[in-house]
Design a protein that fits this description.
It is built from 14 helices and twelve strands. By secondary structure, the protein is of the alpha/beta class. The protein has a seven-stranded mixed sheet, with helices on both faces. Strands 9-10-12 form a three-stranded antiparallel sheet. Strand 5, helix 7 and strand 6 form a beta-alpha-beta unit.
Length: about 400
């Protein structure tokens, strides 16, 4: 099996699995208890909180553990909207956000909030002039993802943060795809809130975090006990937090080497696909993208059919976000960058890890060429296109 769907989830690092085990069968005490048996649970929570804070150039008391990226996104938007409703009810986001943001915004619209969805260019980079023009007196929050989960484009987060700070507006970024993949400095980038998820960087599923800058008036999202400094009730997922902490530590140890290798393999893959398969395009910015992301669109192809054929060859890939798997609608991200429906339907996302090799990419591209050719040869649209091209060439001669 060749696994190329790391944007959906990653293989847990051995360090993460090993770190979890003691808190499943040995140190199982509730961290909220006062007896000494719970000290180990308290300790690993504190250690993970400290490390994640340091990795972001934040303070430990600014990190809150959640059940994952979707909860963190929901918390940031809903609780901010509620807390700052007297100041205003206008929120700005982008057209290419993850559905955890977009669907939350749709929910808030039903509650009387007004949402502005800023557009992007053909590479998926936010239109800064449109963002500036969208800011109003009653704007309370800007939420723009750090890097796109489908096409890998990295946004100008520092510039967005500076703009938000200049206007006294809170700035949240969904960094689920970016945290532990590329460096992030919340102070330098003027980020007020940031979402992260453990299973995107070699940790377990079902655990994540939300960074909330100290001093921000944000309400509790889950009510009940006094956990997470009374801002997020519920007994902490101690094994998950331990695994996420170990995965984060390992990710930052290897980050520089990992980035270099993934970019090398990614660019090799992109060059082969674009050079050897006709009528295809790369989606997202060629250079300003996540190290391990390559997203293509193939004309005269249905993405689902391509994925089934790749699976038969032992290749795990996707056509977009795992959260919209099974949807018959084309990707909202690809439509936002200007692709017509028929081309957006033929998309393929290949996301690498540090374990991905050049030999694996050769196997993938060799099979992809055959699969694309096979599917196109069954398409009457492609047949008509080839005939039209032949007639055009004859006329040109």
């Amino acid at each position: 099996m060749i696994y190329l769907d790391n944007a959906a989830t990653t293989k847990p690092y051995p360090e993460a699995v090993e770190a979890m085990l003691p808190y499943l069968n040995e140190y199982y005490g509730n961290p909220s208890s006062i007896y000494s048996f719970s000290d180990k649970s308290k300790e690993v929570i504190r250690d993970t909180r400290d490390f994640i804070a340091d990795s972001l150039h934040a303070k430990s008391e600014e990190i809150y553990f959640t059940a994952g990226g979707s909860e963190s996104d929901n918390w940031a938007l809903k609780a901010t909207a509620e807390a700052y409703a007297l100041k205003g009810k206008h929120i700005i986001t982008s057209k290419i956000e993850h559905h955890a943001i977009l669907h939350t915004c749709q929910y808030l619209e039903k509650q009387g909030y007004e949402i502005t969805y800023v557009g992007v260019d053909e590479n998926g980079i936010l239109n800064m002039e449109e963002l500036k023009a969208a800011i109003r007196e009653d704007t309370i929050l800007i939420s723009i993802m750090f890097a796109n989960n489908e096409i890998g484009t990295i946004q100008p987060i520092k510039e967005i943060g500076a703009l938000a700070r200049e206007h006294g507006i809170l700035f949240h970024t969904d960094a689920v795809q970016a945290y532990a993949q590329i460096p992030i400095d919340v102070e330098e980038m003027n980020i007020d809130m940031l979402s992260g998820s453990g299973h995107k960087f070699g940790g377990p599923k079902g655990v994540g975090f939300l960074y909330i800058r100290k001093g921000i008036k944000i309400r509790s999202f889950v009510h009940g006990g006094a956990q997470e400094r009374s801002r997020r009730a519920g007994t902490e997922n101690v094994p998950g937090i331990a695994g996420m902490g170990a995965a984060a530590k390992h990710s930052f140890r290897i980050m520089e080497e990992k980035i270099k290798k993934e970019i090398e393999i990614r660019d090799y893959l992109i060059d082969r696909v674009l050079g050897e398969i006709p009528y295809c395009r790369l989606n997202g910015d060629r250079n300003r993208r996540l190290p391990g992301n390559a997203n293509f669109s193939f004309r005269f192809i249905e993405g689902e059919s391509m994925l089934i054929h790749l699976d038969q060859k032992g290749i795990c890939a996707s056509s977009g976000s795992a959260c919209t798997s099974g949807s018959l609608d084309p990707s909202h991200v690809l439509l936002a960058i200007g692709l017509p429906h028929e081309i957006a339907h033929g998309s393929l996302r290949l996301t690498l890890s540090e374990e991905t090799s050049k030999e694996e990419m050769d196997y993938v591209v060799d099979n992809l060429k055959e699969i694309v050719s096979y599917i196109r040869n069954m398409s009457p649209l492609y047949e008509d296109f080839v005939k039209a091209q032949g007639k055009k060439e004859n006329r040109d001669v």
